[in-house]
Design goal:
The protein contains 13 helices and 64 strands. The chain has 902 residues and is α+β, with helices and mostly antiparallel strands.
């Protein structure tokens, strides 16, 4: 069906056709509500009655709507008018890259700039689990200011998609405008000229097929010619499968050799030999541009170390470390010759460091700190036994060593002394310092749950000792603790966190935690004064970085803004640095660490899509739940094991919950904005849940029926900033939860489900207690406490605390800030999960007789969710799909060279 001008679809008036494909027509239209022109993509009526097509059409809308990025065409709306389904997209004015290439090749500077923007758009899509599958010049729009990547019509969601089959699936592969999640074996999807060898062979293609297409597009932009050519379809396919394109420098002599190498790495026949991520392509293009038109042997391609062939893992690691060490040493030597407060004019060098062999990096976003002199990196990591400590690595070396006495240090809050010789950190409820040359840590004062510190040149440490409350100061040599600033009730603040001294040693930046979740306020304070200056709102705590910037996160980007300490005012506009690391949770942690000579450290870890699989007690997989693709994280199984709530992360701050029938595998989303977190307490009957939700500021506890909807019922609504739900007691009378307290830290409380709903404490000491799991017979309460200086599991009689005993003695590994502790239905076993899975045998009685925790199995890197069936014979594990990138810490030398060059 062709729509005539003047036809209306909802509030949209059709103006003129723009184009059409096998299963989609695109029109220019006018939005009568907002007064703007848009592009409308319509599914023809002849196919709109096809249930599978409509489902895939809707899936396209969901995929595209998740891709909020300046270089990706924006989805505004989705609708249905009569029998017509349609998408409303941003109307992009300009010409396609194909039209521009008809006039000849592009200047080198434009190839690098526009190519980096295309790679940036692909990187965002790939992180969301979306593959374009039809990248070509005709799907790249050149506007006046930037590139727009168009038509994700052949995109598919990665992860759990299987192989398609049948006539319908084969027909759908011909669509240039409809989402295509499946590829029938032997069918081809995309445009031949830009298809990777694995696509031509009919194999399932992943994101690396887009990188092949990007290599073809870059080649064509630089030379004005196709990378592969043939007189017929057969000869073209033969060329792609067997031949190599002519060197780019032969056809475009002014092209940098580094660009030629990058394109060749994109066009490797074997996807394993290809450059692996669009993000790396973007970085390399930016670095080639920054290095000048004739970037040669020291180009970004050699820095990142893309191998020309597939090698063994150990060989790759050793090779990469050698390259990194050489680059770092050269970079540091270069920096040493530069003025300490200048970064302009020199090339950016960007690389990453992984964990030491056999260790895992900490899970907190700020579990690392670069020394002020830029020579040493401190970071938190766990050994093979799960014991965390602080490690030190020189940027000019290949090995790292851990500091004795720093076991179980909190991942967040590492900070250096100004002379780069000592570290401040939090562990065992204390603020401590340690000399990196050796020796034991020195306790400075109590700090139950530290949230950042900073060390001035006058040997004053300012720090946040608790999750809630204000900032305090102490001499680096120890002594009296004094409050510096407290939360301002008139601003509805709950906490001040992550202070950062400016170079004068008097003024400091800090972050204010509001009652309601959202962007944080960044303020400027000064020692000896209760006054403060509001500076900006941001998504992370501030860091001071020479030459004179505040670095933080805004809208998922790492930005820097000039600041004048003398006038106490911001200067100019924020400048873009790069994508920001994903911020986990509502903490306000800083996402970078900065030296005084131009080194910036940040988390370079990437979050993979996951699947939820059944595992047995030996750690063997027994099938996967049929869930849509995505990053599934929290897993909470109902009593009797009939169903589960499983959380899927959509962004750093957005998680949606799905209710899954564990027998049939049928899953449905719980109403939007109902459950903020995966921590829920199931009623004994499994028909209701107690959960956290943000309604009035702090997260409060509500109850909701899962049977046919129904209203929310508030259970605990208070000004307490932080709470966590752990269990609905087996008798159905109480919900056990853990609130924060300025004096005692976290405690264990219960609240009646009915009656007056007045909360009462179960465990409340000056130590931090969390959890709260009542045994099936209602006689014991298990919980976690750090009273010994590290987290252990305890049990006390319930409901009256007449008896109490310690159940573990080896310490728990902090797994994403929480633990899973689960009683078996007969009360004779506790399952403990905090990175590995252990079983603790228990003999009930007047006093519990407890065995030694027995390790059932270890979970691989990338596991982010864990649920236990009541009989303890099976587990639901949220595991990564495909290979998992090693956790890494990124480092930029001369980071200011990247400012505003996005």
């Amino acid at each position: 069906m062709t729509l005539a001008p003047g036809t209306t679809l909802g509030p949209y008036k059709i103006l003129a056709p723009l184009g059409a494909g096998g299963m989609g027509e695109v029109y220019r239209a006018h939005d009568t509500r907002l007064g703007r022109d848009v592009a409308i993509k319509v599914l023809p009526q002849s196919l709109s009655t096809h249930a599978e097509v409509r489902a895939r059409f809707e899936r396209e809308a969901k995929m595209v709507s998740s891709l909020n990025h300046p270089h990706i065409c924006t989805l505004h709306d989705i609708g249905r008018e009569g029998d017509t389904d349609y998408l409303v997209m941003e109307l992009v004015e300009g010409e396609t890259l194909a039209a521009r290439l008809a006039k000849g090749p592009l200047p080198v500077a434009d190839v690098l700039r526009l190519g980096a923007q295309i790679a940036d758009a692909l990187s965002r899509a790939h992180r969301a689990g979306v593959i374009h599958r039809d990248l070509k010049p005709g799907n790249v729009m050149l506007t006046r200011s930037a590139v727009k990547l168009m038509d994700f019509g052949l995109a598919r969601a990665t992860g759990l998609a299987g192989a398609g089959s049948g006539t319908a699936a084969a027909a759908l592969t011909q669509s240039p405008t409809i989402a295509q999640p499946l590829t029938a074996e032997g069918t081809l999807v995309g445009t031949f000229q830009y298809m990777a060898p694995e696509q031509l062979e009919g194999r399932e293609a992943d994101a690396r097929a887009d990188l092949w297409a990007l290599g073809c597009v870059l080649y064509e932009m630089a030379t004005g010619r196709h990378a592969f050519e043939g007189r017929s379809q057969a000869s073209l396919i033969s060329s792609i499968m067997k031949e190599e394109p002519r060197p780019l420098v032969e056809l475009a002599p002014m092209s940098p050799p580094a660009l030629d190498r990058l394109v060749r790495h994109c066009l490797a026949k074997d996807p394993d030999d290809r450059i692996q991520t669009a993000h790396d392509v973007k970085l390399q293009l930016e670095e080639v541009a920054a290095s000048g038109p004739q970037a040669g042997a020291t180009s970004a391609a050699s820095v990142t170390g893309v191998p020309a062939r597939r090698t063994g893992r150990r060989e790759q690691i050793a090779w990469s470390l050698a390259v990194v060490a050489a680059v770092i040493a050269a970079g540091l030597l270069w920096q040493a010759a530069q003025p300490s407060r200048r970064g302009d004019g020199a090339a950016l060098v960007r690389f990453a460091m992984t964990a030491p062999p056999g260790a895992r990096l900490g899970t907190m976003d700020d579990g690392f700190a670069i020394s002020p002199d830029g020579k040493l990196l401190a970071f938190e990591a766990s050994d093979s036994n799960g014991v965390s400590s602080i490690w030190i690595r020189g940027l000019d070396g290949l090995t790292a060593g851990n500091l004795n006495g720093t076991e179980n240090a909190l991942g967040g809050g590492l900070f250096w002394s100004p002379d780069s010789r000592s570290l401040g950190f939090f562990a065992g409820g204390k603020l401590k310092k340690i000399a990196i040359s050796g020796g034991s840590p020195e306790v400075l004062c109590d700090a139950a749950s530290g949230r950042g510190g900073s060390w001035s040149r006058d040997n004053i440490i300012i720090f946040a000792p608790q999750a809630i409350g204000g900032l305090f100061r102490i001499s680096a040599g120890g002594g009296k603790v004094e409050e510096v600033l407290g939360p301002d009730a008139s601003r509805q603040e709950t906490a001040l966190r992550y202070p950062y001294f400016l170079p004068d040693g008097k003024q400091f930046l800090f972050l204010s935690l509001p009652r309601r979740q959202g962007n944080f306020e960044i303020h400027l304070g000064a020692l000896g004064s209760k006054e403060r200056v509001p500076l900006m709102r941001a998504g992370a705590a501030p860091v001071w970085a020479e030459p004179g910037y505040i670095v933080t996160e805004r809208n998922r980007r790492l930005v820097a803004q000039r600041f004048d300490p003398a006038t106490r005012k911001l200067v100019g506009e924020p400048l873009d640095i790069r994508d920001a690391p994903l911020i986990q949770g509502f903490y306000g942690v800083p996402v970078v660490s900065a030296s005084l000579n131009g080194v910036l450290a940040y988390s370079a870890s990437r979050l993979a899509n996951t699947q939820v699989a059944w595992w047995d007690r030996a750690g063997r997989r027994h099938g996967v739940l049929p869930l849509p693709p995505g990053r599934w994280e929290s897993v909470s199984i109902a009593p009797y094991g009939r169903r589960a709530l499983i959380g899927r992360r959509n962004s750093s701050s957005d998680t949606e919950q799905w209710l899954v029938d564990l027998k049939s595998g049928v899953a449905s989303r719980v109403a939007p904005a109902v459950i903020d977190d995966g921590d829920v307490g199931w009623s004994p009957a499994g028909d209701r849940v107690a959960y956290l939700v943000n309604r009035n500021g702090p997260e409060d506890i509500y109850i909701k029926s899962l049977e046919g909807g129904g209203p929310e019922t508030p259970l605990v609504v208070s000004e307490v900033a932080f709470k966590a739900v752990y269990q609905w007691t087996p008798d159905g009378r109480y919900v056990v939860y853990s609130p924060s307290d300025p004096k005692t830290g976290f405690d264990v409380w219960r609240v009646p489900v009915d009656g007056d709903r007045k909360p009462e404490p179960l465990v409340r000491t000056e130590a931090n207690e969390s959890g709260g799991w009542v045994s099936p017979d209602g006689r014991w309460l298990a919980y976690v406490s750090d009273e010994s200086g590290r987290d252990e599991i305890y049990a006390q009689s319930y409901p009256a605390p007449a008896r109490r005993q310690q159940l573990t003695t080896t310490g728990l590994r902090d797994w994403y800030g929480s633990y899973v502790v689960n009683w078996s239905h007969d009360g004779r076993e506790l399952i403990l999960f905090n990175g590995d899975v252990r079983a603790l045998e228990i003999e009930p009685g007047p006093a519990l007789r407890v065995g030694v925790p027995r390790r059932l199995f270890a979970t691989p890197a990338g596991v982010v969710g864990f649920g236990v069936m009541p009989d303890h014979q099976r587990f639901l594990v949220s595991e990564p799909v495909g290979d998992v990138d090693a956790d890494a810490i990124g480092l930029d030398l001369n980071w200011a060279a990247a400012l505003g060059k996005r």
